[in-house]
Inverse folding.
């Protein structure tokens, strides 16, 4: 049972909070590279309770405190010119590192700008996502995970907003059992038409639609194990004495998971706090087979999470699109065929910050229970000045590869070896992953 104090400790992420200090020790997604296109790549953002402005100057990205240090005007309305972002109030100019380059309203020869420094955070681009480091000291190195090392043609990035705390949003991805219910479709579509859609294709080494597997084998065995990066989960659905459906998923500490989308594509997804009661999910889709059809993937997702703010067209304001007729005949939820909306409802309907003191966890929640122990331990270590999980230098980070995310049907007698063989085979056949 989670106490009220523990729930507060895990969910509150503003500046100065223990969980906020922990999350600031990691690279956080702050935007999509796609958002920084066009004639004026400047965007106001809210991240971990801070008001910031993201901008692109030539081939560099800057992330500054949003209010000008002169008299507090909003830099999100500034002018991109002369090597930086210029405040529209008095023309003070800042570069991507927060240095004040000019204070043009001051008298000729003034050296005021030499003493002005705007709070700035480093930003790097990885596979279409812009990551920022809001912590102090040296940032941890990026691991050599598939989503970061795959060529650009084999990845696609997207995001969407959820109106709830980051932790309950993350925990839906640590819960393998819910897919048999929340994402249950009563009719199996043609897998050949499933591109870009989760749980509509077929599992590896099988012609059985994944939707059929989830629907007909709804009592999975779930195993969890700790890893250097967080944890690995195994979800086993016994099809027969001879065959078992195996789904291998991963939690990347502190707030990401890597799961299979289908036999050839994986999803690496971060749940990033905007503040205590809202978050964005950021996903990198990584293909081991053909290059990603980015336009199809983008158009599919923009229908429910439209730009420029990527907030969903369905929400608590319109009952998440619930349709009782659909629920009786087509889907278990009655909330359409986009599983992101299903997950969104499951997380948002708990309230903006879930009251975990009222939970009654079952055996299928063992991954969630382990993650919470990892999170509380990491907060304790961080507050004590000890290195928490996944704070690695370049050498150690380079050792972290994969991680395997598999959805397939293999022999029951050697299920523990099957997923490893499936991953090895997929890499051998890939144009880039071998």
């Amino acid at each position: 049972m989670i106490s009220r104090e523990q729930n507060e400790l895990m969910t509150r992420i503003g500046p100065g909070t223990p969980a906020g200090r922990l999350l600031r020790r990691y690279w956080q997604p702050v935007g999509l590279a796609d958002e920084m296109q066009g004639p004026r790549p400047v965007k106001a953002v809210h991240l971990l309770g801070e008001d910031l402005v993201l901008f692109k100057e030539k081939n560099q990205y800057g992330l500054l405190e949003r209010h000008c240090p002169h008299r507090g005007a909003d830099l999100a309305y500034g002018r991109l010119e002369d090597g930086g972002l210029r405040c529209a109030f008095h023309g003070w100019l800042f570069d991507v590192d927060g240095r004040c380059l000019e204070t043009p309203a001051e008298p000729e020869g003034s050296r005021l700008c030499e003493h002005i420094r705007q709070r700035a955070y480093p930003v790097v681009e990885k596979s279409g996502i812009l990551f920022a480091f809001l912590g102090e000291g040296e940032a941890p190195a990026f691991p050599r995970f598939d989503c970061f090392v795959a060529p650009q043609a084999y990845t696609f990035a997207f995001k969407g907003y959820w109106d709830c705390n980051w932790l309950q949003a993350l925990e839906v991805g640590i819960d393998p059992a819910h897919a048999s219910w929340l994402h249950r479709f009563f009719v199996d579509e043609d897998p050949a038409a499933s591109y870009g859609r989760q749980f509509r294709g077929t599992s590896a080494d099988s012609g059985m639609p994944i939707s059929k597997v989830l629907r007909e084998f709804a009592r999975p065995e779930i195993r969890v194990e700790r890893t250097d990066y967080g944890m690995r989960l195994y979800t086993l659905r016994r099809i027969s004495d001879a065959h078992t459906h195996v789904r291998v998923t991963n939690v990347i500490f502190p707030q990401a998971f890597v799961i299979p989308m289908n036999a050839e594509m994986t999803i690496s997804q971060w749940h990033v706090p905007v503040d205590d009661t809202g978050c964005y999910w950021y996903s990198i889709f990584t293909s081991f087979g053909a290059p990603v059809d980015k336009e199809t993937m983008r158009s599919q997702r923009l229908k429910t999470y439209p730009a420029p703010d990527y907030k969903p067209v369905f929400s608590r304001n319109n009952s998440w699109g619930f349709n009782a007729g659909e629920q009786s005949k087509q889907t278990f939820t009655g909330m359409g065929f986009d599983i992101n909306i299903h997950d969104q409802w499951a997380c948002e309907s708990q309230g903006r910050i879930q009251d975990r003191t009222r939970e009654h966890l079952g055996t299928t929640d063992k991954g969630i229970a382990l993650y919470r122990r990892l999170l509380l331990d990491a907060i304790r270590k961080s507050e004590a000045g000890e290195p928490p999980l996944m704070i690695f230098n370049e050498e150690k980070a380079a050792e972290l590869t994969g991680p395997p995310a598999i959805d397939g049907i293999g022999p029951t007698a050697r299920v523990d070896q099957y997923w490893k063989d499936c991953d090895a085979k997929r890499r051998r056949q890939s144009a880039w992953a071998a």
The domain at 27-133 is CATH 2.102.10.10 (Rieske Iron-sulfur Protein). The longest strand covers residues 265-275. The mean pLDDT is 95. The longest helix spans residues 366-383.
